[in-house]
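Problem 12. The chain below contains 201 residues. Write out its predicted structure in token notation.
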Amino acid sequence: MSPAPTDLWWIGGSPCSGKSTVAGIIAAARDVPLYSCDDAFERHAAAGPTLKKVTAMNIGDRLAQPIEVQVGDVVRLYREEFPLILADLGNAGARVVEGAALLPELLAGIGVPREQAVWIVPTEEFQHRHYRQRAWAHELLASLARPDQAFTRWMRRDIAFARLVADQARDLGYPVIVVDGTTSATQVAAAVHELLSRPRA
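Solution.
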């Protein structure tokens, strides 16, 4: 893979951590476009074996798998997708890049310095509370025989993924922000802005 561009700021993390809102604030403050990995996912979905496997499964079958299998699939599909994200970015110039697909190992692999990347993860309690407020999450599971059980497994998967991402980022020397709902998105964005404004080491 090509070396990391110096005019990109990367905001990764786990789902339902508020990172999309924060990334939008950062992009607006820096007057640069925002690239959302989630928005690009559908275009990339047929690119690799794990991407094809996961997108072909219905939500019930996906969540019925052992948690470690689900997390492993998520990691593999993001590894498959990352070259496509880089191809999308190309030489498009300065922008904020945001998404759960931005695994710390992948950014480290292209030499992204710690001053250009940050990961946001929620506490378990915040994640549960935030997901329960999202109507689409309940609608997604409504047709399943045991939606409450499926929701619990979904939360367990995302909690395990958040832990993996945070541990990986810290091990690689990248900053991690843990959100618990006691600070606003604006306050979290201010902390992210400060981290992404540090001089290169």
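Discussion. The radius of gyration is 17 Å. Students who got a different answer should revisit the alignment rule from Section 12.3.
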